[in-house]
Amino acid sequence: MNFLGRLLRRLPRPRLPTHFLPDSTNGQIRTLLAPATSPSAISSVRKRLFAEIMRNGSPSCSMTVVLDNWVEQGHSVEGSFLSTIVIAIRKRRRFTHALQVLEWITKDGNCELTSPQLAVRLDLIAKVRGLKYAREYFEDIPEAMRSCQVYGSLLNCYAYKNSLEEAEFVLQKMRELGFATTLFPYNSLLSAYARARKFPEMDVLVKEMEEKGIEWDNYTYNIRMNAYVAASEFEAMEKLLLKMELDPQVITKWNNFLVPASGFLKSGQIDKALLMLKRVECLAGARFLGKNYLSMLSSLIKLDDMTGAERITEEWEQKRTVYDTRIPNFFITALAERGWFDKAEAYINRLQQIGKEPASSVWYIMSRGYHSGNEMDKAVKALKKALELGLTKWEPNPVLLTACVDYLREQGDDKSAKNLLAYLRNRSSSPGSAEKHPSPIEEPGI
Fold it and tell me: What's the superkingdom here (predicted)?
């Protein structure tokens, strides 16, 4: 079985550390704005400002105006509290607002940013205004303030934009200054190498980390395993998985097992892929697991591996604690589109026995299939079922509809034929009605 790289795009991947993330478990990143007060510990007066900034999330709203108004009302604002605000709004990806807060601190020239704050401001400038302006800002930072964190931020900006030569230059400068001793810059460059599929360069960087005794974290393992999967080096991936699980410095999380699940699926080792999903279930909970089963099911169906798709569906049935309608809908649709109506009907019967019903779009696809096989009695019943459940955002194919109406008239059931036409006529005149082919996962009710 030839599992192509497209599978990797189907399974959700863990988010790699391409920029400073204040809510990350990486201690270096989290303390960039320290000291900071947690939102739960701030005073009632500060809570008003905090709530005001959280509420004004519109891009058109200026944090400079909000803070100026606050000061004009006679309030003061401490730098540590503003650091708390920056952390909170950056977590919500309000990068422009976070930058405005940091710029407000220094706008009168009465207060200077700490080195960690400079690093965060550099990162925000790259996000909001671009690399050119970030580089210009870096050049304006006094040499004495260009700390390991500031250089790491600059490297990360280049790595995020896949400017590898510039990122490599910054890392070399960090080596010369004795700053290349922490994990963050290496993770940033490893992530960029992985995206560019520069696997030999990754090997060199990993060897350097080992020589320096720089310990890995969850992100490092995920980056490395992603690269092994992309290069189809499944044996190396499996060895790295074992190393990660034995690493006393790493607390494994659910996303650490998504990449190996993708790798095992790509290599045709479905049993091991399912084992990885069980690990995800243990760490993340059953509700999240449905997304991963759906991704694996979709991948197998795209590769026409219906035996594997059936196994994935059966495994989901055994393990599910939350019913995700998308999975049975997707599986039934795949069976119907291949003309395997006996299996599709058997699976529908099993669902109905536990009080579940396929989506209207699935019944429509079944009806279309029956029509193609000239099983008009079943085609009409399936179309009626689709209508009963409610067609949304799409209209039945005119050829199918005409065939069903003609069949009903041939059977002497003029009343049902008229009702069918009347229903479709009403739908065509209703607002928002538009032709669209249905998808079995458009109705993701859980």
Answer: Eukaryota
Q: Give, as one character, the DSSP assignment of residue 16.
A: P
Which of these, 39, 436, 336, lies nearest to 347 by C-alpha position?
336
State yes or no: pLDDT of 15 exceeds 90.
no
Measured in degrees and rounded to the nearest 5, phi and psi for residue 16 equal: -85, 150
* Rounded Cα gap, residues 351 and 208, in angstroms: 55
Q: What are phi and psi of 77, to 5 degrees?
A: -135, 125
DSSP at 355: T
Give the chain's count of helices (H) and strands (E). 24, 0
- Say how far apart CA 287 and CA 93 lie, in whole Å: 25
Q: Label residue 37 by pLDDT band (50, 70, 90).
A: very low
Query: In 3D, which of 101, 441, 123 has the Cα closest to residue 294?
Result: 441
End-to-end Cα, the chain, rounded Å: 33
Instruction: Report which of 345, 347, 346, 342 is spatially closest to residue 328, judged by C-alpha positions.
Output: 347
Domains of the chain by start residue, with CATH? 323-446 (1.25.40)
Q: Which two tokens stand for residue 153?
A: 């931020």
- Smallest CA-to-CA distance from 244 within 212, 284, 276, 274 is with 276
pLDDT, tens digit, 9 for 90 and up, residues 397-441:
778 888 888 888 888 888 888 887 777 676 555 544 444 444 443
Which sign does the torsion angle of CA 121, 124, 129, 130 carry?
Answer: positive
Per-residue tokens: 437: 């082919």
With beta carbons less than 8 A apart as the criterion, state whether 228 and 240 touch: yes
* Two structure tokens written together for 189: 């460059």
Token duo for residue 396: 């039945």
What backbone phi and psi angles, to 5 degrees, belong to 293? -60, -40
Dist CA 6 CA 2 (whole Å)? 11
Number of other residues whose CB lies within 10 A of the CB of residue 39: 16
CA 64 to chain centre: 32
Across the chain, which distance is largest between two alpha carbons, in Å? 92
**∠ CA 178-128-17 to the nearest 5 degrees?**
50
Q: Which residues of 226-240 are buried (b: 16+ CB within 10 A; e: fewer)?
A: bbbbbeebbebbbeb
Percent of the chain that is helix, strand, coil (3-state, to 5): 70, 0, 30
Residues 243-267 have pLDDT tens digits of: 998 898 888 887 788 788 888 888 8
Contact 332, 347 (CB under 8 A): yes
> Can you tell me which residue has the tokens 């009632």?
44
